[in-house]
Amino acid sequence: MKLELNDSSLLKTKAFINGQWVEGDAGDRFPVLNPATGAVVAEIASVGQAETARAIAAADAAMQSWKALPAGQRSEVLERWHGLIIDNIDDLAAIMTIEQGKPVFESKGEVLYGASYLKWFAEEGKRIYGDILPSASDRRSIVIKQPVGVVAAITPWNFPNAMITRKAAPALAAGCAIVLKPAGETPLSALALAELADRAGLPAGLFNVLPSARSSSVGGEMTSNPTVKKLTFTGSTPVGKLLMKQCADTVKRTSMELGGNAPVIIFDDADLDLAVKGALISKYRNSGQTCICANRLLVQEGIYDAFVEKFAAAVKEFRLGFGFDADTTHGPVVSAKALGDIDTIVQSAIKQGANVVTGGKPSTLGNCFYEPTILTDVNDSMDIFSQEIFGPVAPVFKFSTEEQAIAMANDTEFGLAAYVFTENVGRIWRVSEGIEYGMVGVNETAISSEVIPFGGVKESGQGREGSKYGLDDYLETKYICMGGLQR
């Protein structure tokens, strides 16, 4: 399957450092594979510690003049970048589909979602306010906010466009520079964004992209280099914990969007059709490879059987296939290893007594395709209750009371997103306040946008991305005391 683009110059295979496309010092390259076919899409330059150090130095130099610009001028560059992304949506979606696997309609949706952060923070960057604090003495207390400094970012493969703009947009709007390491599975989307940023007039050094097959070399320099003042990471909880430890020696600011174990709690009084629709969207979008996707469906016993029947009927209508095929609803998972991890979880649950309603095994389409799966007869003593599945597998648990549902939802170290379906207003408040999650969707699972504060609690992370709160992680608060004003 050959990648055909309207603008072939968007397919970049070198690192982007200080406004230049460069090879790694050692000349190493690594392959990017199409998960639908296993074919090599491109060979990408692989950088290491030395190149990362140079990118950090370039970022630090570039931001000295960038942060001094009026916010409106920074905004104009972000607006131009946004416009170029929209103009090139078809090519960006094609690049994403061939390296990540999701159907092209989902890829286009992600490109629009990613672009929305540039639009949002182009405006929010003009609204970085300070304060003058009241004082009874001969002085004035002034609070201003300044860019935190050079930002290092490490992004995942499941949303290879939007997870970049969600970090780069607020960082740049605040006056920072950013050094990015994209996931090794999906560097092409990041490099295409760099090309469009360059075309938009973003000054050299402000946005650097470091593809690498040696993650520890790049990450080690990012976490140890004192010029980097903040690290932002989206990925697994174990890796996030390691990065936080590594950042401790230089006391960097960190923001972490880590693992999830999202419950969808469906009560007897819920609109059943609405709950089924919401659970389908949440669980199977991006073939279940979403940190906020439904990981546990908790259904009250009075509607359990009816829910499973409707849910299964809808899942059986899905069509697995290649992302560019018009009738495909769901594509492959990102790699053969990911498929193996998913199948291990499913087979373990079956051995522990789970019943397969549909799916339950790899598809014959290819090494990265897994059948959309529903499991019943599961309970909270099984391993699958506490595991983040990250695949198209929906275990449906049964509960009796509201108190039991809240306890089951909270019985996890994670706390990213949760969803509640009920028509009872009192229950909406009790459950929303009682469950320990950073985000709660009530009768809705499509909760993410550029205007909301995205983030979790407990071991799902720290900090928020998007919304008016999204700039806070990229700003330092400075207090200035002005005395002797009566002289």
UniProtKB/TrEMBL annotation:
Coiled coil: none annotated. PROSITE patterns: ALDEHYDE_DEHYDR_CYS, ALDEHYDE_DEHYDR_GLU. Transmembrane segments: none annotated. Residues 21-480 form the Aldehyde dehydrogenase domain. The active site is at E257. One of its GO terms (biological process) is gamma-aminobutyric acid catabolic process. The keyword Oxidoreductase applies. Signal peptide: none annotated. GO terms for molecular function: succinate-semialdehyde dehydrogenase (NAD+) activity. Keywords: Oxidoreductase. Belongs to the aldehyde dehydrogenase family. PANTHER family: SUCCINATE-SEMIALDEHYDE DEHYDROGENASE, MITOCHONDRIAL. This is NAD-dependent succinate-semialdehyde dehydrogenase. The lineage of its organism: Bacteria, Pseudomonadati, Pseudomonadota, Gammaproteobacteria, Oceanospirillales.
